[in-house]
């Protein structure tokens, strides 16, 4: 970014390093791909990082036995119980569903005032937890609560801080 040609003060032909001034293909060579990124701030702050291609993912069935959270919510306590009941029924009629996939889908849903989180690894644990949630019982790995309103919280990272009082 912001460069049109590499510095003439460096002998760029002496190695395998180059400065990219435009997008170009990054071919696979059988070796991990690496890139260096440098940022030079006007005030003298410099940052450097070397990125390396991640190793190929191993395809395992570990996700089938991983502990995952399921986030369930409703606008009222009754709606939360109803959501748990419907989810339990859906899970029982669709035995092919994996807990990790259900957890991934649930976390993207809107979070309402009445909430519960179920922690488990297998479908039996989730059926037990959902049944308990629907009937207002307790179960291992089940936590429920009420959040009155999502607070409007802001975080400010202002560097040295001298420009902000307090």
In short:
With 166 residues, the protein is α+β, with helices and mostly antiparallel strands. The protein has helices spanning 77-93, 99-107, 123-134; strands at 34-40, 46-52, 68-74, 114-120, 142-146. 23% of the residues lie in helices and 20% in strands.
Can you offer a commentary on this structure?
The protein has three helices and five strands. The protein has helices spanning 77-93, 99-107, 123-134, and strands at residues 34-40, 46-52, 68-74, 114-120, 142-146. A three-stranded antiparallel beta sheet has the order 3-4-5. A two-stranded antiparallel sheet has the order 1-2. The protein is elongated and about 75 Å long. The model has no long low-confidence stretch (mean pLDDT 84).
Average of pLDDT: 84
Order of strands across the main sheet: 3-4-5
Q: Kindly, what is the distance between the CA atoms of the first and last residues, rounded to a whole number of angstroms? A: 36 Å
* Helix/sheet category: alpha+beta
Please report the number of helical segments: 3
Strand composition percent = 15-25%
What is the tally of beta strands? Answer: 5
Instruction: State the helical fraction.
Output: 10-25%
SSE sequence, one letter per element: EEEHHEHE
Main sheet properties? 3 strands, antiparallel
Low-confidence stretches: none
What's the Cα radius of gyration? 26 Å
Shape: elongated
